[in-house]
Write a structure and sequence with these properties.
The complex is a heterodimer of chains A (296) and B (156). By secondary structure, chain A is mainly alpha-helical. Chain A has one domain. Chain A is built from nine helices and five strands; from the N terminus they run αββββαβααααααα. In chain A, a hairpin with a 5-residue loop joins β2 and β3. Chain A is globular. Chain B folds into two domains: 78 residues; 48 residues, no CATH class. By secondary structure, chain B is mainly alpha-helical. Classes of the chains: A mainly alpha (296), B mainly alpha (156). The interface between A and B is large, with 50 and 32 residues.
């Protein structure tokens, strides 16, 4: 499978490249596959080919594949759960409702276990986080080449199908949660209370710059670690799938071995994707619980 | 890692999803779960109550049965007593009746005997007189021997 690429390095690079849509600045030199160089006369909105073009597009560009897959998966989750919720009866549950109730009860007991305050937002938030992250991670189980090849066949140059291997996706979630943490910290403790929590502990008050530094780092570390943990795990998992896929180009013995490896890694990954979704959800609940607590 | 506007798009998407879930998914499911929980609790309570009522009813039925048995025994005892009494009365009545009939029969017999004796006496006296008449027709006046005959009649 990797034989169509000039090198395995290029194969890997290609698989780790998002389908990015953005504006290339005027004067940018585009290199196509045949080595031709085209100098852009004016700013051009287009899909990026290669990492350099992505870099040149700057912040105001968008990863179309991440958006499409994450929104699609989110809509699948909401559609299924909404359908079950609309038909929810108090009688004997069956099929979809059974599954949905099982997930909801699992989330509910997790929230009850870790969150000791009253807030109607937390449980639905945890449910959304868990199911969305789980579905996005689950895309990892699809063989790495299927969708990208299908996309390439229909003219789309890049296709990264696991949204949680895009840091934009994980940070998008963790930063939203971070703002919720800040909001509830201020709402529950007041601005002064929140500040004193940051500044007047763990050391005595006269050391408040040290406290502020320590607690500030701890606060900032929350969203960053939350996003990076998920991103790192999924990115590394995807990377290993890609490396295994490289074996398929190396003769039938290696391909057979690669197939076995891919199966084993996929089985192991079933654990990883669930675990990562669960960790993301649990930490979300815990952070929000800390935001509500008067003193920790 | 390069960050771009996807970050913002993802945040908006995430917020929308959470809002939708909070508004349209979580409450109905939780509601159904809570209602079912309550129904189950009610059902269990009703079952308990039913069991309790069953116990009470069984106890009551046992009491009733015991009362009925006692009553029946009493009725039977009374009936037996009454039957014995009736038998006794019947015996007495029968004995009285028998005695009465016996007495009547005896009286009857005595009367008949007397009557037969009277008529016999008449007849014997008649026969004796007739015999005597035949014997004495020729020699004795009936009138002179009338006293004698009367005496004889009384002796018979």
């Amino acid at each position: 499978m990797a034989t169509e690429y000039a090198s395995s390095g290029e194969y890997i690079k290609h698989h780790l490249q998002n389908l990015t849509y953005g504006q290339l600045p005027p004067g940018f030199e585009r290199h196509d596959a045949h080595g031709n160089v085209e100098v852009l006369q004016q700013a051009t909105w287009t899909f990026a080919h290669g990492a350099e073009e992505v870099k040149a597009m700057g912040f105001w560009s968008i990863n179309v594949d991440s958006m499409v897959f994450s929104i699609g998966l989110g809509l699948i989750f909401l559609f299924l759960f909404r359908m079950a919720a609309k038909k929810a009866t108090t009688g004997v549950p069956a099929g979809l409702q059974n599954f949905v109730e099982w997930v909801v009860e699992f989330i509910d007991s997790s929230v009850r276990g870790s969150f000791s305050h009253q807030n109607p937002l937390v449980a639905p938030l945890a449910l959304t986080v868990f199911m969305w992250v789980f579905l996005m991670n689950a895309m990892d189980l699809l063989p790495v080449d299927w969708l990208p090849y299908a996309a390439a066949a229909s003219g789309i140059p890049y296709m990264k199908i696991v949204p949680s291997t895009d840091p934009n996706v994980t940070f998008g979630m963790s930063l939203s949660i971070f703002f919720l943490v800040l909001y509830y910290s201020v709402k529950m403790k007041g601005a002064g209370g929140f500040f004193s929590e940051l500044a007047f502990q763990p050391f005595p008050k006269f050391l408040f710059p040290v406290n502020l530094l320590l607690e500030g780092v701890g606060l900032i570390a929350k969203p960053i670690s939350l996003a990076l943990r998920l991103f790192g795990n999924m990115y590394a998992g995807e990377m290993i799938f890609i490396l295994i896929a490289l074996m398929f180009g190396g003769g039938w013995i290696l391909a057979l071995f690669g197939g076995a490896l891919q199966w084993a890694w996929a089985v192991f990954h079933i654990l990883i994707i669930t675990l990562q979704a669960f960790i993301f959800m649990t930490l979300t609940i815990v952070y929000l619980d800390m935001a509500h607590a008067e003193h920790h | 890692m390069n960050f771009n506007a996807t970050l913002i798009g993802q945040s908006i998407t995430f917020i929308f999803f959470v809002w939708f879930c909070m508004k349209f998914v979580w409450p109905p499911v939780m509601n159904a779960l809570e209602t079912r929980k309550k129904q189950i609790a009610d059902g269990l309570a009703a079952a308990d109550r039913g069991k309790h009522e069953l116990e009470l009813a069984a106890k009551k039925a046992g009491d009733n049965m015991r009362d009925a048995k006692a009553q029946a025994a009493e009725v039977i005892a009374q009936a037996e007593k009454r039957a014995a009494q009736i038998i006794e009365e019947a015996k007495t009545a029968a004995k009285e009746e028998g005695d009465r009939q016996l007495a009547a029969a005896q009286a009857n017999i005595a009367q008949e005997t007397n009557r037969a004796r009277e008529s016999l006496r008449e007849q014997v006296a008649g026969l004796a007189v007739a015999g005597a008449e035949k014997i004495l027709r020729r020699e004795v006046n009936a009138q002179t021997h009338a006293d004698l005959l009367g005496q004889l009649k009384a002796e018979l």
